[in-house]
């Protein structure tokens, strides 16, 4: 299927590794030029170079913390007018509901709710003016099914989901569609860190922690960044103009629900 987005330009946040990298790779393979971002410059430059070498698309990099005002301003200045926005940032630390104080919540809100909202506020007007745009927010399965140890994620991402639900319907008439992509467990550094938390808490091996998690997934395995990226690219395509404000779950069937 031709996604019809060759020649478009995308900002993919937090994209030197993991799910963001999967999205950047998949968009580049469709001929979309990229602005990629992450905090550490080395892995970001390496990821960008690999994408250029594979696809030949133009890739610009901005090493910056997307959750800080200063970092976001630099990313937005370099990005300029983009047709596609993929929002992403690191996830909050695990813990118990009794652990977190106001500052912890503010940190999670900044990273996983207010940052994607600020990026949309900055870029939606240009997309609306040009009559075409796609936004995919990388959120989490925690929006549909809370993850006990990730209460900060459950909370902040629920707020973003509410913002998107209302806003997506206010911009759809101008050719701009906003949807959220909800990862269940995928094979990334983040998943390794979460498994390490289980290892430390339960005194088991990494293999055992992974096997126990895989046993909770009907697909019997972790997702790949390629699968995630391909789904993201489809959500950014010409074919999704009628798909507005949806929460697309990619979790190997882990959330046991009919709808
Ligand atoms: P990952 O493998 O750890 O990769 C995170 C990427 O984001 C790296 O490129 C990292 O580079 C960049 N990054 C992190 N914080 C950033 C910041 N403040 N500003 C700019 N770039 C930043 O993580 P992932 O698994 O892809 O997860 C991505 C998001 O999906 C997270 O919010 C995570 O909670 C969520 N999620 C993941 C899973 C999963 O199974 N993997 C499941 C549900 C939800 P630098 O460190 O150099 O900045």
Query: Biggest sheet, open or closed, and with what strands and sense?
Result: 7 strands, parallel
| Spatial strand order of the main sheet | 3-2-1-4-5-6-7
Discrete helix count: 8
Number of strands: 7
Bound molecules: NADP nicotinamide-adenine-dinucleotide phosphate
Unreliable spans are none
What integer is the average pLDDT? Answer: 97
Terminal Cα span: 27 Å
Radius of gyration: 18 Å
Please explain how this structure is put together:
The protein has 259 residues and is of the alpha/beta class. It has helices at 18-29, 41-55, 69-79, 102-130, 151-171, 189-202, 206-214, 225-235, and strands at 9-12, 33-38, 59-63, 84-87, 133-138, 176-183, 247-250. Helix content is 47%, strand content 14%. A seven-stranded parallel β-sheet has the order 3-2-1-4-5-6-7, with helices on both faces. The chain is globular.
List keywords for this structure.
seven-stranded parallel beta sheet; 259 residues; alpha/beta; 7 strands
Question: Helix and strand layout, with pairings?
Answer:
Elements: E1 9-12, H1 18-29, E2 33-38, H2 41-55, E3 59-63, H3 69-79, E4 84-87, H4 102-130, E5 133-138, H5 151-171, E6 176-183, H6 189-202, H7 206-214, H8 225-235, E7 247-250
Bound molecules: NADP nicotinamide-adenine-dinucleotide phosphate.
NADP nicotinamide-adenine-dinucleotide phosphate binds at residues 14-20, 37-40, 43, 65-67, 88-91, 138, 140-141, 183, 185-186, 188-191.
Could you provide a short overview of the structure?
It contains 8 helices and 7 strands. The protein is α/β, with parallel strands linked by helices and 259 residues long. α1 (18-29) links the parallel β1 (9-12) and β2.
């Amino acid at each position: 299927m031709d996604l019809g987005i060759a020649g478009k330009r995308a900002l993919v946040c937090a994209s030197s590794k993991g799910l963001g990298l999967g999205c950047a790779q998949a968009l580049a393979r469709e001929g979309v030029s990229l602005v990629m971002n992450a905090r550490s410059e080395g892995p970001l430059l390496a990821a960008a170079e690999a994408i250029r070498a594979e696809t030949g698309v133009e890739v610009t990099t901005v090493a910056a913390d997307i959750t800080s005002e200063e970092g976001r301003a630099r990313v937005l200045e370099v990005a300029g007018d983009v047709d596609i926005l993929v929002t992403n940032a690191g996830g909050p630390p695990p813990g118990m509901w009794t652990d977190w104080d106001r500052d912890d919540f503010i940190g999670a809100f900044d990273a996983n709710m207010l940052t994607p909202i600020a990026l949309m506020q900055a870029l939606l007007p240009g997309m609306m003016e040009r009559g075409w745009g796609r936004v995919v927010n990388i959120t989490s399965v925690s929006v549909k099914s809370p993850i006990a140890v990730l209460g900060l994620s459950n909370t902040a991402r629920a707020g973003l989901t509410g913002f998107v639900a209302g806003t997506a319907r206010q911009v759809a008439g101008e050719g701009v569609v906003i949807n959220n992509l909800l990862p269940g467990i995928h094979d990334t550094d983040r998943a390794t860190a979460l498994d390490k938390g289980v290892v430390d808490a339960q005194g088991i091996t990494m293999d055992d922690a992974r096997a126990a998690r895989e046993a909770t997934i009907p697909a019997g395995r972790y997702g790949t960044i390629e699968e995630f990226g391909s789904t993201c690219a489809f959500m950014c395509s010409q074919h999704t103009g009628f798909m507005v404000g949806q929460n697309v779950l990619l979790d190997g069937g882990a959330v046991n629900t009919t709808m």
